[in-house]
Specification:
The protein contains seven helices and seven strands. By secondary structure, the chain is an alpha/beta fold. A hairpin with a 2-residue loop joins strand 6 and strand 7.
Amino acid sequence: MRLGLFGGSFDPPHVGHLMVAQDATEALDLDRLLVIPAARQPLKGADQTPAVHRLAMVRACFDGTPNIDVDPVEITRGGLSYMVDTVEDVQRRWPAAHLHLLIGRDVVPTLPRWKDIDRLLGMVRLVVLYRDTGGAVPAQEEIGGQMVQVLATRRIDVSSTEIRARVRDGRSIRGFVPDAVATYIASTGLYHENSRAPERADS
């Protein structure tokens, strides 16, 4: 079984995440891709949207997408989210699976700061996602003394930071996120200036 792991804050998830996930699933011939929202990103500030909301938005974003499942393992575990711990959990559930960990090219410089990075790289096949800029993309790249796979993905100029800013400024996010995610943001009041939606037990 070829199993992909795609983690992140997803604050909020957007069409770029959706398209990258679908493209990677097809290009890598994955049997399943797990989208894993973090409980708390260790390398980001403490002011993160409550995990319950991000999980609900990720589920809304990827609902019905073939071969892609949302896995709440890090949110269920709580605390700081370390990928090495998540991979160990996934290995226990799918001991025969070949694991492919997807990360963006912008994340590569932070890898030396990840918990037990050498052990992590020994458990997964790392796949670095390059946004297609029209130039040549190498098939492999050396990271941590080993060659890792590189995958070109379509260029989608959307970011979670921009979406949060647009909501805060009262501008439309139509086309930036799936309709179900936009509806959730509107109904909870997430990202509005001087407001912070409370955690909802039913999310």
